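2024-03-11 09:14:02 INFO receiving multi-entity request
2024-03-11 09:14:02 INFO entity count = two
2024-03-11 09:14:03 INFO echoing inputs for audit
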Amino acid sequence: MMGLKNKKWRLGVPRALFYYYYGSWWETFFHHLGVEIVVSPATCREIMDLGVELAVAEACLPVKVYYGHAAWLAPRVDALFVPRLVSVEDKSYICPKLMGLPDMLRAALKPCPPIIDTTVDLARRREEGLQSAIKGMAKALGMGANRVVEAVAAAKARYREQIFTPDGLKENTARQKLTVGIIGHGYLLYDRYLGMDVPEKVARMGGKVVFPEHLTEGEVEEACRQLSKRLYWTLGQKIMGAALHFMDRDDIDGIIHLTAFGCGPDSLVGDLAERYARRRGKPFLLLTLDEHTGEAGLNTRIEAFMDMLYRRRTA
Amino acid sequence: MKVTFPHMGHLWVVLKTALEGIGLEVVVPPPCTRRTLELGVRHAPESACLPLKVNLGNFLEAKELGADTIVMAGGVGPCRIGYYAQVQREILRDIGCEYEMVVFEPPDVHFSEVLEKVKYLNRRPWQEGLRGVMLAWQKACALDYLEQRVQHLRPREAQPGRVDAVFQRALRELAAAASRREIKRIVRQAEREMATLPLHTGRTVLKIGIVGEIYTVLEPLVNLNIEKRLGTLGVEVVRGLFISRWINDNLFKGLLPLPSHDPAKTAPPFLNHFVGGHGWESVGDAVTFARHGCDGVIQLAPLTCMPEIVAHSVMPAVQEAGGVPVMTLYLDEQTGEAGLQTRLEAFVDMLYWKKKRDKERRSAGAWGYFLGVGRGS
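2024-03-11 09:21:47 INFO inference complete, emitting structure
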């Protein structure tokens, strides 16, 4: 990789998984370092098929889609940016599959471009972990310290600005009576192909959609205090916190949990959320997506759920 | 208080001894059977991993025998096992099965929490309790030692099943043993009996390394007795996971001078970071087994196990670099005996022919070298 030091980099960033959380940070950071960023296009049939073919069958759908994005990028860039995300906050983890992602890709992609796999591990000492991750990224690209400080500042500013909402939900104002909380991983909710546009579907059937990202960190934490043990998955905590928060709110009529087949943490977190919802009498719909999920079946289930909510409302 | 705990292979012998050692009344759950599995599957989340389901079945069956307290281990991620207890508690609550749960979490938060729990359970003076725990540890070592002898003898004995019978009896005796002297006597006795078993002569014995998630590796119910099946097919099984080693690595933090996994050294460049569970060890062990002349490696994992999926994903690279065939088997409540047997037979057949071909090639190569032709030209 040293030989590429003075070259103008074309760095591939897959539009999947944590791109939906940190994409803006990464883009600004690399842009400031004078690195050309190539982000893969939005998930489509071609990309999903590429991934499904490459990944082991047992991997979860979002990881398969990530493989697809990486495979799409591989012939088009000098290197792939696949950070090894171990932990992004104190004493919490990201899913094991993300810890192994760079190695998994190296074993699957033939030929495989160089992979920048900086480890991001903030589980013990948050600040130190972040510093070393940033240093690692810059070093991999052969950049000096001065430019990095500047780039980090810019990236931070941009990251704070961006509050995550999927753009352009077409809400059906004629029938706007219900509020539905949709919980799930960001890379599922905001990837329109992978997530099968569920939020949009709900909105079109007359639901006002609320996402976990609409809640503050404090609200999530507050709600999670009901649990007997802290959830050690960053996103699991967010999903559970949102679920519990939505359950306690009278203005939310129902909760939809969108999950991907094979998602490990969701198999436990989702079950707990459903149990709590049942005990509290809050309508709860679990939608599990995989590469075989049919649009019609999904529509029917959402319609039935929405109808049920209307009936509860008017009853 | 009547305590129970989840099953995992022969772990019950160790746990029973330790818990009785500190003065508790212990209800060992009935041995895992299809019923255990079915009970667990009925109430557990569908896509949860298999150990959670079987453990739940254990708790429900132990309840029938009057248990009222569960002792189990927890964790702080990233693998799902750390949250088993919480999910199981809610499930048991929803189906009206009352249990108290004492969950031992790793002492990385506060060691005092662990001590509190031990204090809560302990019914005897410290010295006596400690003696019980030491006895449990000695039993774990004895069991693992004998099991390794069994793995060696299974493919070589002339009458399949004899060595297992010896082992089963030793297991029962060990469970009841009350002193170190007794343990030693049982081990010596079993060894003597094993030494007298009639052996095959001239059978080609293949060597297969078993790696994977600890529960599926150690629990015969869920792996459908894979080691015995392989033994009958003429395969000597080796593995890196043993209860004593697990206790040493996890509870004593590797303090005791036992051979231990060192995935940090063996797994790279295939897998460069821990991934929770035993994923890193699986890759590291596969590399170790390939280097030490195993003919093949079998990876066992519960379906949807996250760390093992990572390991599985990099296995093609291990296989390519080490020249050792790797087969991954996911196990769940749907796994059928006939299907597993067929896959094992096919894999063993393939290894057998590969070994034969490699041997022929080697000898042909040697002759070519001797005659001054071939090789390197």
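2024-03-11 09:21:48 INFO post-check: DSSP finds twelve helices and ten strands in chain A.
2024-03-11 09:21:48 INFO post-check: The interface with chain B takes residues 55-56, 58-59, 84, 86, 91-97, 99-100, 102-104, 106-108, 117, 119, 227-229, 231-233, 261-268, 270-272, 275, 288 of chain A (CB under 8 Å).
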